[in-house]
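Could you help me review a protein record that somebody else here produced? My question to you is simply how this chain folds and whether the C-alpha cells agree. Thanks in advance; the entry in question is below:
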Amino acid sequence: MKKITITNQNLQFLTIRGRGIHTLPNPPVKVYSNADLQKKEILLENKEKSGVYRWTNIVSGKTYVGSSVDLSRRLYNYYNAAYLIRGDYMAINRALLKYGYSSFSLEILEYCEPDNVVTREQFYLDLLCPAYNILKTAGSSFGHQHSEETKIKISEARVGHKHSEDTLAKLRARGRPSGSGKPNQKVEVLDKETNFTTIFDSYRAAAIALGIRQEVIKNYFARNQSKPYKGRYVFKKL
C-alpha cells in the first residue's frame, strides 16, 4: 500500500495513477494536509473563488477531481453528512463517510474564471485519471444526463457487480432498464449564476445534484412558480 504525504514544501506534487507517477504541470495554489483540522481555513480561504480542487485519500492514495464556480459553497457541502448520504452514488462521498476527513488532504489545483472551470477540470481529469471519478467528463456530478449504460456503471461501482456486455447492449437498445414502469419526468435546470442549462432525467437526479429534496421541485411546478428557486435555479419540465 502506498502512502502519500503532502506538504507545502513539496516541489513535485505527485499523484498515483495505477502504478505510474504523474507530475502536475504546476504546484497547487493551496494545500490542506488535513481536511478535518483545516475545515475552517478551507472554507474561509476559498470564499467567492472559482477553480479546480482535488481530494486525496492519504490511506489509499485514491483521488477525486472536481470544480466549482463557488468553491466555498461546494466544499461546504462535503462537510454535510446529509449531503454525502444523499449523493452516496458518488465514490468520493462514500469514501469521506467511510474514512473520515482526517484521512483526506485537499488541494486547490488552480483558481480560474467561472467560465473556465469545466474546461480546466477536464484538463486535470485527462491528466490524472482520478480513481474516485467514475465518470471522466467534467461536470458529470452536476448536470450530466446519464445514459442507462452509465447508470449501470455507477451502480456496478457501488456494489462491485458487473453486468454482461449482452445486458448492456440490451439496455442501450431499449433506452431504459427492463421492468421499469412509467418513464421519469425529465426536468431542465437553468443556473442563473452561471447561465448553464442542464437536463436531468428525473426530479430525483436533479434534487441530488442540487442537494435538495424532490418535493421542492414538485412544489415549484405545482405552484406554477416563475421566480428562480433560491434566486438562482429555474426549473422547466420537458
The domain at 14-128 is CATH 3.40.1440.10 (GIY-YIG endonuclease). Confidence is low (pLDDT under 50) at residues 1-21, 142-163, 170-180. The chain is about 35% helix and 20% strand. Residues 190 and 196 are 6 Å apart (CA to CA).
